[in-house]
């Protein structure tokens, strides 16, 4: 294993009764990466993150995080790790400063110079003027900044973030991602689960999960370039009717209406005529041309590929 490897899992699985939440997951994350976990609800993102920080014991497989084999070394790992969940998990009836002081004590941070350290932290996350506000009275974006400040207070080498931006507005999401890149620039490795394509696109590397399985892995650009399914753009006078007809074709994987146009994801080898012919036969006007693949196409193709399609060369 390279010294730059921060996370490595081999054939990792987690079963809850009849549910196989994580299924034979093998992945590797290297230092300084902003590694994204993208997947539909219930695809196993949170369960994987919980196993990686030692909160859950795997049913099978191996995990090494920052050189520690889990679950055995979970206690030692805690000091080197930051874990932030989508739910605000600080004390609502304590102030911003009280929350940070409390966490500093939990992390055993030295009391000498602590005041200055917390001032710097609050300055970085624009919490200085809010220091005496009860955490429960902060806005979603402010609570998120406080949660991030709390998560990085002990300068962890690895941050695991579980859908950290699900409760905040677009500007706060952008600010949050700026903060993540600043941390990555300083050498922190980040693993972030998200539902948002624009966030996934910003990651240096991406794992797409579906039903607990790794269905795609690579940089967003490489994944888009390697997409075997191609998107076509269809212009028609009656997009709603055209959408219904196109969905009935075996070559069509998905159809999304974008304004008045339809963006159609099709199996490899499908020509524009394959789509326009049946539409014209049904009395609809239709033109179609190839479109540039997006990360959303990669996601849709990876999570909708049938086992039969997967098995074909
Ligand atoms: N403690 C648990 N007990 C039983 N089943 C669980 C438990 N935790 C998760 N699951 C199940 O495991 C599967 C994966 O859940 P998980 O929360 O990891 O997915 P996710 O990708 O994080 O989804 P979301 O985006 O909704 O958070 C789901 O079917 C879920 O119901």
UniProtKB/TrEMBL annotation:
Gene3D superfamilies: P-loop containing nucleotide triphosphate hydrolases. Residues 7-236 form the ABC transporter domain. SUPFAM superfamilies: P-loop containing nucleoside triphosphate hydrolases. Keywords: ATP-binding, Nucleotide-binding. It comes from the Bacteria. One of its GO terms (molecular function) is ATP binding. SMART domains: AAA (SM00382). This is ABC transporter ATP-binding protein. It comes from Modicisalibacter tunisiensis.
């Amino acid at each position: 294993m390279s010294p730059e490897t921060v996370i490595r899992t081999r054939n990792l699985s987690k079963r809850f009764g009849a549910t196989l939440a994580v299924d034979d997951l093998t992945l590797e994350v290297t230092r300084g990466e902003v590694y994204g976990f993208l997947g539909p609800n219930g695809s196993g993102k949170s369960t994987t993150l919980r196993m990686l920080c030692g909160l859950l014991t795997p049913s099978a497989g191996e995990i090494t995080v920052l050189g520690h084999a889990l679950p055995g070394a979970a206690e030692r790992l805690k000091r080197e790790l930051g874990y932030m969940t989508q739910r605000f998990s600080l004390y609502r009836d304590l102030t911003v400063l009280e929350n940070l002081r409390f966490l500093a004590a939990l992390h055993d941070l030295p009391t000498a110079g602590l005041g200055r350290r917390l001032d710097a932290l609050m300055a970085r996350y624009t919490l200085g003027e809010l220091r005496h506000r009860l955490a429960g009275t902060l806005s979603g974006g402010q609570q998120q900044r406080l949660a991030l400040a709390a998560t990085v207070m002990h300068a962890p080498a690895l941050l695991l973030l579980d859908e950290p931006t699900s409760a905040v507005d677009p500007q706060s999401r952008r600010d949050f991602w700026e903060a993540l890149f600043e941390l990555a620039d300083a050498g922190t490795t980040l693993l972030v689960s998200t539902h948002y394509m624009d966030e996934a696109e910003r990651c240096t590397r991406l794992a797409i999960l579906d039903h607990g399985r790794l269905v795609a892995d690579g940089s967003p650009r490489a994944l888009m370039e390697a997409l075997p399914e191609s998107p076509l753009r269809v212009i028609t006078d009656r997009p709603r009717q055209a959408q219904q007809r196109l969905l009935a074709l075996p070559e069509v994987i998905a159809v999304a209406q974008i304004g008045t146009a339809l963006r159609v994801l099709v199996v490899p080898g499908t020509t524009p005529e394959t789509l326009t012919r049946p539409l014209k036969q049904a009395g609809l006007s239709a033109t179609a041309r190839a479109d540039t693949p997006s990360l959303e196409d990669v996601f849709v193709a990876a999570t909708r590929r049938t086992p039969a399609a997967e098995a074909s060369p």
